[in-house]
Design brief:
By secondary structure, the chain is α/β, with parallel strands linked by helices. The chain has 15 helices and eleven strands. The radius of gyration is 23 Å and the shape is globular. The chain starts with 6 loop residues before the first helix and ends with a helix.
Amino acid sequence: MNYKISKPLLGAVAALSVLCGAATAADWRGWNIHVDGYPNTVAMDKFAELLADKTGGEITLQMFHGGTLGSQPDAVEQVRAGALEIGNFNLGPIGPIVAEANVVSLPFVFKDVPHMFRVLESDGGAAIAAGMAAKGLTPLAWYDAGARSFYNGEKAINTPADVQGMKVRVMNNDLFTGMISQLGGNPSPMAFAEVYQALKTGVVDGAENNWPSYESTGHFEVAGYYSLSQHLIIPECICVNTDTFNALSPEMQAAVTEAAQESAVLQRELWAAREAASREAVEAAGVVVNEIADKAPFQEAMGPVYEAYFETNPSLRSLVELIQATE
């Protein structure tokens, strides 16, 4: 028996087909503060390429670099709310939102960069990731952001006494402002884009950051002393909106995670090369670089910063101890 399909039914079937297609494909948007050519920018573009490949084109990602979609705090909130799907974020500004993520911002909590990655790829990292996911930010992979050290235009810093009275720009996080205060300095939180002019005009005496940021922003032109305190070793993440990620099938989740982690391998390789090139460039320009022979006085000065953190977050003392015990 032959059945005729009515035009309305055909239309309904066609509409359903379109809806099903829309449900299985996604066009994501991603945020990144860094400029063209920066290791993170190259790696995030690679992530977008890998994402399309590994998901068979079911998920595509359009990256917006250079902070064109807003500041980092704005973008963090956009990803948490689902207005953006992806962000490449430093964990520093995430700390005030996610207590577990704030532990990486404790001064001197990591021994060095390799130690940081060992922590992030173990139980400590899993605890941090769970805390972030609960706040709407699921980390897919960890990027290298090097170690942050002090720089200024006046003198080399070798002891905490050298920081006394100095106005130092930091990211807006109580741990960072507490760090400078415990060293006897005056913390000055401000937007990253404002730092060059602030250094040039004397609004601040110094700042702290990693080699590529110090070099690429031209901060070395107005702050020619770089002291290797390496007080903060804070990773960056590729973060996806938690609800968006949880809505994916297990197979898609695996593909997205794999793409992110492969991009992280590239980012770390590019970062190491960029870090070496940045140091070479600023030293050639006349920057005075000094190693700090004894960091113990700096570390000892951080006791009140840790205790203030534990007073607010008593349940996270065990996480910090786990990080410090990780070999």
